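WP5 quarterly update. Target: hydroxymethylglutaryl-CoA reductase (NADPH). Source organism: Thalassotalea psychrophila. Length: 418 aa.
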Amino acid sequence: MPKNNQNKYAEVYSVLTNITDESLQQLKPNEQPIAKRQPLNMYVKESTVEKRWQAIDCEQAKQQLLDQSAVDSMALYQKNIENFIGTVKLPVGVAGPLRVNGLFAQDDYFVPLATTEAALVASYNRGALLISEAGGCSAMLLNEGVCRTPGFAFDTLIQAGQFVAWATTQIDTFTEITESTSNHLTLKDLKINIEGNHVYLIFDYLTGDASGQNMVTIATNAVLEYITEHSPTKAKYSFLDANLSGDKKATMQSLNGVRGKKVTAEVHISAELVKKRLHTTPERMADFWRMSSVGGVLSGSVGVQGHYANGLAALYIACGQDAACVAESAVGVTRMELNDDGSLYASVTLPNLMVGTVGGGTGLPSQQANLQLLGLAGNGHARALAEVCAGLCLAGELSMIGAFCAGHFAKAHRKLAR
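Structure tokens (predicted):
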């Protein structure tokens, strides 16, 4: 191996060249019978939970996870969990008040954040109070839509083209089929992507106040069944989603379009207020933004932002959202510039906020309580929740960038993560 490559892969090279026969034996499949098995019944039932714990055989863990509160409330989790063994308790802090002047969110919000990371709530709280003291952030929901992208494989490009020609005549039928699966779903658009003899149908939906992922899955599956039965050009094989949707991942497609709800928020903050609350200047914060934007480009990040995932993950967990959607939701662009009068202009744009106020985990007791705390529980509030999310991310960006500019970032973590 060339010397420069050997240095580059020194650690891996060392491991691989020192594997013993005994280590190789450890890597082989273990075909011994499985000694412990949990019940096949995945539903929440007290007797089944007890049998599951008998298989796990860890009394210390059981005492913590299956306390009396978990036993009393287990029936409530029937539609939200399989192989239930108990509950996890997370501390919840509140940031705010965060003043949002939006198209749908118009209030001073106390934002619940469930996290175990010290300094997180303190940082978002500082940013929220700064925004509120500056008169609040303006927030605007720009677009919304959730897609599923079934894929079809054919023998030839000609067959793929014939299939597309037929599919474009079926849009009214597709609309009728999809919208019959839910009273809250609307087929917004159908786009088509051809790659050789593969065809991707991009079904784009509106899902009301639900995040909508299960809703669009069921609707698209109904169309897929119709296509399989009625298409004059038969696919060799097809799949319900062929990974063009951007589900649970950061994509350039979603950054330039929308997945969930696209929201932008901005705030103007005077130099005096920046100095008073963040102990730095608008000029230095704009400097940081320019340098960190280049850093984001050099790293190949999808969008340029500091830490949307921190606030969104904590809010999603607290409010019964799908926490895995942070992978796509925490994508966007932060911008900080110096205004002509010396004040700071700051904005965030998030095109992939997957949030809802009904369905999923939003109806569970603690999660429902946190949505009620926000005043955004139930029907009619999903768009407002998305605007609050944008305001929260703006608060986090201001606080973190302010800490870097003032040299307080490490100090704050030393003090609070004790």
